[in-house]
Design goal:
rod-shaped; single chain; four-stranded mixed β-sheet; Porin; about 375 residues
Length: about 375
């Protein structure tokens, strides 16, 4: 009997979590963004001679890009760039060249890959790199030089709102098949990957779409919760195999009557099979945890004499004082949900246990499981 109940509960939980995770991963964040940046450049080589060179900080550079994220970690970007290349005043021979490029790049969201969400929800970091075509023009010298290029860079992000982020980018561009020097005054000796140009820009990213957040800032659920449930159920089933179900026999004058087995749901609640989970630094339960609250609510309604401890936990990121407060707030919010559903406050006792020091602090999966509220039926 117990094994059947546990198996059914586990199956229903897996189906609910899986369906919600797939929907969330597919539909719960925006994927498109438009990016506009402006700043400075430094044309490093080639130049006609040592008499030609640009300033270390040379205006002006502009970049317009459109980005699509395949998920919250990887995406693609198409962008158009413009560089105005001029001499360093009073030091270099004069020149006035324009550099245009179009590139297709891959994008890696290092903020999510490196789990920035464990310490910030404001700062992000993107890496990008790819290839494209470019053209160098100098109208005074009637130069039009077409070439190929490779580009790579890093983009720091500061989230201003769910729709806008401030960015700072540094990129390196390497040209191949470049026939003319950046000043346009002579031909190059090497048509290989000889051209070198650096860009530094600041700008804005505008997120497009109907959802609240963009992929840059979304932490999607993984299989950590499911794996933990699988391990718990496997351990419980092993115990069931080793120890047969206990029954209580009541002696009566005529016959023996078998009384119902233990309160299986109570045991599962007290053994922490039903937990409410939270995102980093949040006190509102994640959507996938509503099924656990439903179980607790149903049990309390069916057992009006029962009361329950609501125990809040946090991960180890942050000070002890802050984590104790956060754990208490999480438990209090769960209590409020149960009170609004009709459960008397006198049956609900909030306990804060602060940071769960039993977990591996360096493991994001472990920290995700630590951010929870558990229950103890009394």
């Amino acid at each position: 009997m117990k094994k059947i109940v546990i198996t059914l509960a586990f199956a229903l939980s897996i189906m609910r979590v899986s369906a919600q995770t797939e929907t969330k991963a597919a539909d719960n964040f925006n994927k498109w963004s438009v990016e506009l940046d402006g700043g400075f450049n430094k044309a490093q080589r080639p130049f006609t001679s040592s008499n030609y060179y640009s300033s270390r900080i040379s205006p002006f550079t502009a970049d317009l890009g459109v980005r699509y994220m395949l998920n919250n970690k990887f995406g693609l970007k198409a962008d158009f760039g413009y560089n105005s290349l001029t001499e360093q005043k009073d030091s270099s021979m004069p020149f006035d060249s324009k550099y245009y490029r179009v590139d297709l790049q891959g994008v890696a969201n290092l903020g999510r890959i490196m789990n920035f969400e464990t310490w910030t929800n404001t700062f992000g970091l993107l890496a990008h790199g790819g290839f494209g075509v470019a053209q160098l023009e100098n109208k005074d010298l009637h130069v039009k030089d077409r070439m190929a290029n490779l580009i790579a860079g890093l983009t720091g992000q500061i989230r201003l709102t769910d729709r806008i982020a401030l960015t700072g980018d540094v990129s390196t561009i390497v040209n191949a098949l470049q026939d003319r020097t950046f000043d346009g005054g002579s031909t190059t000796a090497n048509r290989g990957f000889s051209g070198l140009l650096f860009n530094g820009t600041v700008g804005l990213q505008v997120y497009l779409g109907k959802n609240t957040k963009h992929a840059d800032w979304v932490v999607t659920s993984d299989n950590a919760d499911i794996a933990a449930l699988e391990n718990k159920v496997a351990g419980l089933e092993e115990q069931i195999k080793k120890a047969p179900e206990k029954q209580i026999i009541v002696e009566k004058p005529v016959t023996n009557t078998v009384v119902a087995d233990k309160d299986v749901v109570k045991e599962m609640i007290n053994d922490k099979y039903y937990s409410v989970y939270f995102d980093f630094n949040k006190s509102t339960p994640i959507e996938n945890s509503t099924s656990a609250i439903d179980v607790i609510l149903s049990y309390l309604r069916k057992n009006p004499s029962a009361s329950i401890d609501i125990v809040g936990h946090a991960d180890q990121v942050g000070s002890s004082e802050y984590n104790n407060k956060l754990a208490s707030t999480r438990a209090t919010n769960v209590k409020t949900i149960l009170e609004k559903a009709g459960i008397a406050s006198s049956r609900l006792n909030v306990i804060s246990e602060g940071a769960d020091n039993s977990i591996q602090k360096d493991s994001e999966e472990a920290r995700r499981l630590a951010r929870r509220v558990t229950f103890k039926v009394k």
